[in-house]
Amino acid sequence: KNQVEQSPQSLIILEGKNCTLQCNYTVSPFSNLRWYKQDTGRGPVSLTIMTFSENTKSNGRYTATLDADTKQSSLHITASQLSDSASYICVVTLAGNNRKLIWGLGTSLAVNP
Amino acid sequence: NAGVTQTPKFQVLKTGQSMTLQCAQDMNHEYMSWYRQDPGMGLRLIHYSVGAGITDQGEVPNGYNVSRSTTEDFPLRLLSAAPSQTSVYFCASSYLTGSTEAFFGQGTRLTVV
Known about the structure:
Radius of gyration of chain A: 14 Å
Order of helices and strands of chain B: EEEEEEEEEEE
Distance between the termini of chain A: 41 Å
Strand content of chain A: over 45%
Helix content of chain A: under 10%
Radius of gyration of chain B: 13 Å
Oligomer: heterodimer
């Protein structure tokens, strides 16, 4: 069964600290993996995309990694800011013409002052 | 640069009423979709369309209808609202080939009483 599992379910950190969010997937055939950020009351917004051949990709203070062998991805947030408080959702796209997306449940991050 | 526009943002319906959630995008995306988001269940695909005149069912299509008469618009119709349809609804659009990044609307919070 195609699944995306994220951990932890929720996380609270202090402003300025770093954190790492995890995403494990059992999806085949794999096309790519995206991390989305969803602010409260808003739609998700893409942060980064990882393809099969990519190991690491950065977008400002966000760094995503992908290990295609172990089917794991992580999202590392450096020097967190209050505006990083959001839900972070991992999504895997199935290869093929129907562009089926397998969504994780997300990690809810709260950054406290 | 509107992106994906959803209306209304909030709606309260009585059981048995019908209504249409509007979605419009101005990015000339072929692929459009409707999701519902419920606590603890993540985003679930209701219906999707790969172009004008073509629609198909997602994971949870029962109780909903869609049509796609133009590239820009993809309305979602609730035929006879039920309390189980209380949820937050998101419309999304993306290119059919190439980038799989989905652009989301701001969401519609629907309550059925």
